[in-house]
Amino acid sequence: MAISxxxxxxxxxxxxxxxxxxxxxxxxxxxxxxLFISPSRLTIxxxxxxxxxxxxxxxxxxxxxxxxxxxxxxxxxxxxxxxxDRLLTIAVSMKDSKSKYIVGVAGPPGxxxxxxxxxxxRRLNMxxxxxxxxxxxxxKPAEIATIVPMDGFHxxxxxxxxxxxxxxxxxxxxxxxxxxxxxxxxxxxxLQSQGYVYAPSFxxxxxxxxxxxxxxxxxxxxxxxxxxxxxxxxxVWREVSSVFNEKWFIDIEIDKAMQRVLKRxxxxxxxxxIASWRVEYNDRPNAELIMTxxxxxxxxxxxxxx
Length: 306
Prior knowledge:
By secondary structure, the chain is of the alpha/beta class. It contains eight helices and 15 strands. The strands form four sheets. Strands 3-8-15-14-9-13-10 form a seven-stranded mixed beta sheet, with helices on one face. The protein starts with a strand and ends with a strand. This is Phosphoribulokinase/uridine kinase domain-containing protein. Residues 102-304 form the Phosphoribulokinase/uridine kinase domain. It comes from Acorus calamus (Sweet flag).
């Protein structure tokens, strides 16, 4: 069944009478089960034919009861705008200055998680600043969005050295068991309870985390956490996933993602042979595991060329 959208208040509701504005030239397409977002409760609820975000106004929704909504677009620009619209609507509706709306963004290596998260945060902060200035705000507009990458929760190299098979641990660095999900969970719980937190970043030059390098302050309404395993339904990862108010998965063909990862390895100085070996020995098995967590997403974003 194909249904189109019309606007009612803050939300975009669906009808079966064709597109709400057939003259629009944007080509964002949302398929399957729509969402109703309740910013005041900071939760997500499924609703029969209603969506709580401007992102789905652009084209057509077709409903399939057991699937998450799928965001498809012809360009990455449209993806950025749709996701920014979605979160900006939520930020405007948040009345409690200490509240946090935490979004988990998962997907395989090479899907574009970091790029998408960074650009959406940049646009959110830019548009919020413009909004503040238009309302005669006299102070310096605050940033309302920030990123916490999962990379900062890698185990240290010294911790890998202490494992039963250090050589294998280093070769498989990037697999779920080479991260510290318990520390990530503690960080997110602190953020929720206190409204601020210091989080680690990752120094790729050194190859280890940098403690307390990212400060999420009380004025950050929106926090995007991005990383490979955030939607895994096993062990401590399941508890991490339960913290998120909303879960996104960037969907991409594994072969295409691995081509991107191969180029990334080569760009860091690895020879083509070593880069290819690492992709097949480590990155591809990790990607195949990550793809199994797509079913846990609230929104699936089809990857397009960056």
